[in-house]
């Protein structure tokens, strides 16, 4: 599933496409997208006639601002397999295209999503910002001021495994399983340690590690394990730079011990049994 670096790569691709002309028409497939209650009212028609502006990101969401009679926005969630591209209007549409937003320069924003876990929604920018999902999102890990204390304030009372707690988008926005597993390895924290048992120094290491792995992911244009593609259809390169994720059985890049896989809460991960030793008590079996 695309996480913060993949969504940021898509955002940058949309900025680079330099779409400036107003929306002249909109085509939507008849297939519903399946992201859940906050996405049922897509309201995409409000964008016709509006002029595209800044493209922002919040957590795993793209917020493309538009100017119409009021300030509008198109909210995009990539779900599991969602892709955005900007194509010439006459170019053939890929299978599983669900949205084509036509601009006056005869280009289209296209949203393609084979598994349909993504989501699209438009409306007044202010009301989108003030309602779920955006209003529920936690701290942005790449914002200034994100540090161990900020992380501890949000997760320090949690009895959950720290890996699982990090995936809670209402605490920290944008982190998913891959970057959580990577950051915990760099911070030398056992993924199943209970958040409530971590010391202040561990929170500091973890916050710094999150920033490092997310920035590396962006630098590498995202991680492509299977589906992720950027706006021009290219795969990311970060999978080559992952330290432990997907590398169970291989030697730890730090100590050489064989990396081990684990599964908890239906999600797998990888850890080094030496560098991420089980804390005494305080971890979840
Ligand atoms: Zn190791």
Summarize the structure.
Helices cover about 20% and strands about 20% of the residues. The chain has about 280 residues and is of the alpha+beta class. The model has no long low-confidence stretch (mean pLDDT about 95).
Descriptive notes:
This protein has 285 residues and is an alpha+beta fold. It folds into two domains: 4-136, Alpha-Beta Barrel (N-terminal domain of MutM-like DNA repair proteins); 148-271, Helicase, Ruva Protein, domain 3, CATH 1.10.8.50. The chain has six helices and ten strands. A hairpin with a 3-residue loop joins strand 3 (61-67) and strand 4 (71-77). Helix 1 (4-16) packs parallel to helix 6 (200-219). 41% of the residues are buried. The mean pLDDT is 96. The structure holds zinc ion. Zinc ion binds at residues 252, 254-255, 257, 272, 274-275. Residues 252, 254-255, 257, 272, 274-275 line the site of zinc ion.
Number of strands: 10
What is the H/E order? HEEEEEEEEHHHHHEE
Largest sheet: 4 strands, antiparallel
Task: Report the top-level CATH class of the largest domain.
Answer: Alpha Beta
Unreliable spans are none
**In the residues, how many domains can be counted?**
2
